[in-house]
Specification:
Length: about 300
């Protein structure tokens, strides 16, 4: 058994382009991976400085604000430990950015977050992968074991339990335990979503759940928008992160009541429809309210 550990610094970098939530990945022979690298005790004065260095070296991107997401240290979570190497403990940071063209010369790309977690996207209705693959296999896996059945019900909204959009990590871990994602390496798993290297899909699920939870008390969506935006554009970003469609009138009423935005007095004709008014984030709200988030008003239709 290894007697020492390797500290890895990993980054989940999220953007929303159009109506697609995107994550920055590094593509190599081991599959899609999050930007990451080991902590260098000599060269990195802090964990965050080390993370920023690795992100720039691997993607060419210079990060702005980042926040620590979680620390992952389960035994054998990394193939290097399984092969006799050190235990890998990952300190993960989350960054929200506006997607831009990546510099040439790097094996980095923007990828659709829901390509890795397709069961989390309800914007087009109930995801087909649920009834076509996941739930039938989960019922077989759960059998008559009460604890498994209850976890299935809570995570996947079965038997009258509503779908909780924040339970992204719990859903992924249940699918992993049931052998329904390729990272479980059971040899019999059907492919559910695009895999990622090591346990990076688990890390991505953690980040998505954290973002969804923060929508109600942090104005984080404005970090993903240009300085001036339409209310329709704001709603699309929230829907992209939440993975669900929102009631437009209720959403706009909530945003107005919360004092989150203010009109710029400008009009854009670039929306493809009627001219739309442009707004900006009203930063004064940060001092006026302790938890200025957009929340999630009633959906256009509840998941069945």
């Amino acid at each position: 058994m290894p007697s020492h550990a390797l500290i890895s610094l990993d980054a989940v970098i999220i953007a929303v382009t159009g109506d697609a939530p995107r994550v920055l990945v590094v593509r190599d022979g081991g599959g899609d991976a999050l930007p990451s690298g080991p902590l260098d005790l000599g060269a990195h004065p802090t964990l965050e400085r080390g993370l920023r260095t690795w992100v720039t070296q691997q993607t060419g991107l210079t990060l702005g604000h980042v926040e620590q997401l979680y620390t992952f240290g389960d035994r054998y979570r990394d193939p290097r430990e399984q092969a006799g190497g050190p235990r890998v403990i990952s300190t993960v940071y989350l960054a929200l950015v506006r997607e831009g063209r990546l510099a040439t010369g790097f094996e980095a790309a923007w990828a659709d977050t829901y390509a890795y977690l397709p069961w989390e996207d309800w914007r087009g209705g109930r995801p087909a992968v649920l009834d076509g693959l996941l739930l039938p296999a989960l019922f077989v896996w759960a059998g008559d074991e009460g604890e498994r059945v209850e976890r299935l019900r809570q995570c996947f909204g079965h038997e009258g339990t509503p779908w909780d959009h924040e339970r992204c990590l719990e859903r992924y871990e249940l699918l992993w335990e049931a052998g329904l994602v390729s990272e479980a390496r059971t040899g019999t798993a059907s492919a559910a979503g695009q895999p990622m290297a090591r346990d990076h899909r688990r890390i991505l699920a953690t980040a998505l759940g954290r973002l969804r939870g923060k929508l109600s008390y942090r104005p984080l969506v404005f970090e993903l928008l240009p300085e001036r935006f339409t209310l329709g554009g704001l709603q699309r970003v929230v829907e992209a992160l939440a993975g669900q469609r929102l009631h437009t009138q209720n959403f706009r009423r909530l945003v107005a009541t919360a004092g989150l935005v203010e009109p710029t007095g400008e009009i854009t004709r670039g929306t493809g429809g009627r001219p739309a008014e442009l707004f900006r984030f009203r930063r004064e709200v940060l001092h006026e309210r302790p938890a200025p988030g957009v929340g999630l008003p009633a959906r256009r239709s509840e998941p069945a």
